[in-house]
Sequence to fold (213 residues):
Amino acid sequence: MTDLDRLAKDRDAALRLTPVSRETAARLDLFVEHLLKWQRVVQLVAPSTLQEIWTRHIADSLQLLPYIGEAKELVDVGSGGGFPGLILSIAAPEKKFRLIESDTRKASFLREASRIAESTAEVYAERVESAAKRISTDIHMVTARAFAPLPKLLDLTAPFLERGARAAFLKSQDIDEELTIAAKSWKFNYQLRNSVTDPRGRILLIETLERRS
Fold:
């Protein structure tokens, strides 16, 4: 089986897990093609996952779509190679995403990939702390994937969550330990959901956040 055959097989598997419209799938094809070109000079994903980019990265991101609900204004922190924020923006073009990525090379990729895949996402090439001060719009939802341990992630996203935004974070099997540590500094209402792409992964949904005094 050639690399192209493996990639096509992985694409089919991903779209069975997280179905999207034909138009969205076509825009995601453009995104993948662009990412594979950039990957030669900037590591956007682990090289070992390239042949599984659809299941490991795209479907993993798309599984957050049902949890976004009615949110219209969203922030994705540590967007990196576009996961999950840019993928969600491609799949839900009616929503306004702001992608925060401090690595300037990755931010350049995000801007170009957004344009090619017909996303309206806005890219902030700066740290989360700085971007949070500049985003004045009321944010309804915050997303993140493999960005930081939960205690640090809550510190960074608190400017949005303490103003009423909800969160949907893709987390690993270490989430129970992270929740225990985070609860020492924060009060938060949350739910955990199983990942559809990784038996060890979890989706952490946070409804409210308040710093402990």
Q: What stands out?
A: The two ends are 59 Å apart (CA to CA). The first strand starts at residue 73 and ends at 77. The chain has one domain: 3-211.
